[in-house]
Amino acid sequence: MKGISKGGKYRVLGTTDIPNCDCCGKTNLTRAVGLQTEDGQVLNVGVVCASKLLRQNYMGQTYKTSADAILSMGKRVMRENTAIYLTAA
Ligand SMILES: [Zn+2]
Fold first, then answer.
1. C-alpha of residue 51 to centroid of ligand 1, in Å
2. What pTM was computed for the model?
């Protein structure tokens, strides 16, 4: 099943130009990120949806994030080839 499920961990794959959100079904996205689920599925999710549903992990805690923060994480993983994981609240 596609979408974001509570408690799941998602790896940020980078920003995308795909206008469809796998989360809410919107088809006019201008800013989206690719996310990989723990079982290897790839989702394309708008940054607004992602910021509402996902939390940042830091030192064993999770924190709220923003659409801009999601976007910069997407850019960062592409630029630095690093791994960033988000948790669904
Ligand atoms: Zn959405």
1. 10
2. 0.92
